[in-house]
Structures are given as C-alpha cells and as structure tokens.
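To assess whether ligand presence alters the predicted conformation, the chain was also submitted together with nicotinamide-adenine-dinucleotide. Input:
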Amino acid sequence: MRGLKGRVACVTGAAQGIGQEICARLAEEGAHVAVMDIRDTASAVERCTQFGVDAQGFLLDVRDKQQIHAVVQEIFKRWGRIDIWVNNAGIFDNTATVDVSDELWDRVSDINYKSMFLCAQAVIPIMEKNQWGRFVNLSSMAGKMAYSEEIAYCSTKAAVLGLTRALAVELGPKGITANAICPGPIETEMLKNTYQHLADINGVTLEEWCDSILKTIPVVRFGKPADVAALVAFLASEEAGFINGQAINIDGGLVFY
Ligand SMILES: NC(=O)c1ccc[n+]([C@@H]2O[C@H](COP(=O)([O-])OP(=O)(O)OC[C@H]3O[C@@H](n4cnc5c(N)ncnc54)[C@H](O)[C@@H]3O)[C@@H](O)[C@H]2O)c1
C-alpha cells in the first residue's frame, strides 16, 4: 500500500478509461477523491466509495478557467486540503497537418495542455499551505515520438513534458513535485476509436491492426488502465518524493528514453 490515507486526490477526465481507474486506485490507497469530467462521473464515484473513502463528482470542462477555480474552491471547502492533482483529461486527434483548422488546433491544445497550466494556477496556492503536493500529468509516448498525421496530439503531449519540468523546478522547494507519465497503447475507448480509424484508412480489420501493433510491443500485450493507475499511485505517494520533473514511460518497452 502507498499510504494515501487522508490525502485528497483530484483527477480530471475521470469519468471513464484511465482516469476512472486512477480514481479507484487512489481510493483503494485511502485517499478521498474528487472525480472531475464533462461526462457523468457516477460510476467512478461509486467505485471510489466502495473503498470506504469520501468521493464526489464535479462537472468540469478543463478548458474553462472560471469553472476550474470554482471547482477547486468547492473541493477545498469540502475537504480543507488538496494533496494530489492528476491532469488526465485529454483528446486524441488524427488529422493531416494541412487539414487541421485553427479551431481544432486550439481545442486539442486547450484540453491536452493549456488546461494543466490553468489547473496548476488554481491549485498551487492550496498545496503551498501544507508545503506538500503531487502533480501527475498525462502525456503519452506521442510526447517523445512522432506519428504521421498527429501533429496536434504529438505537439501537445510534448508540451506537457516542458510544462511538467517547469512546475518541478518552481515547486520543488515548496515540497511539491510534478511528474509526467508517457503511456503506450492502453486499452480504453480512446485507443479503440483510434485503432478503428487507423485500421479503416489502412484497409485492414481492427483485429489485424491490433495484431500488427502487438508485434512491436516487447511484452506482447496492450497496457491496461490499472497499469497506469499503479504508477500514478506510486508517484502520488510520500516515498516518491525524490522523483521530480520526470517523463516516465509505461509502454511495455516501446520507448527507451
Ligand atoms: N489510451 C491510451 O492508449 C493512451 C495512451 C497515451 C496517453 N493517453 C492519455 O491518457 C489520458 C486518458 O486517456 P483515455 O484513454 O482514458 O481516454 P478516454 O477518451 O477514454 O477518456 C478521456 C476522458 O477525458 C474526458 N474529457 C475530454 N475532454 C474533456 C474536457 N474538456 N474537460 C474534462 N474532461 C474531458 C472525457 O470525457 C473522458 O472521460 C489522456 O490524456 C490521453 O491522451 C492515453
């Protein structure tokens, strides 16, 4: 166990997929959990409360600065502290560079990257009160490697790494760490939709596409949301206090830097 009893953990984009699993794992470790999403968070909240902690869902569009500040204040009012903030909300985009509209570019940037800056601005003053905090930011292996027709996704996920390092340097002296996670393919709705699209444009079935990807993963399996959640729980713990500003791969051995 990671000893998160009594900690208050907040997760964005937490209604489903990796975000929901992170909430459940942090709850299992004893943290109270703020479950934030633009979608219904009921099932994630229910999973958390099964571990005997307090959990509440919050409607939050991470593009909206005012909403972020309002939700952060609500969380602080309810629990009197914020210890762990997981920036998980993200969207994938698979558009050729010449076809990316300004609107699409801004949407992907606002959700995948600018939101992390806005959330940090709102949360830092609260973490500073206890001179303790953990930011965990979801990047991707696409933050380190490039994929064709993914200019918006790759750029924003690389930007997350710069943002994380900047937070790590600025907040380290205050007892607050910031780390990024770079997952490879993790079995979620996002991955399924992406692979279906790639299978379609390559004229193969989804099964054939998945088989071709599996051959490139040294451990010969796709990741599960629980794999990522376990890493988040560790980075959020006391014993990870000397890990700061890192971009940690969790990809079965796909990327080595
Ligand atoms: N699944 C993968 O293979 C994979 C790989 C690398 C990185 N990631 C990253 O992990 C994170 C989670 O991915 P996932 O696979 O669970 O995706 P998902 O699509 O299953 O879940 C994403 C969640 O984010 C929420 N969201 C979207 N826009 C939002 C907004 N404006 N405000 C608040 N919430 C919003 C969605 O409602 C959804 O619940 C993302 O940042 C993604 O880029 C995923």
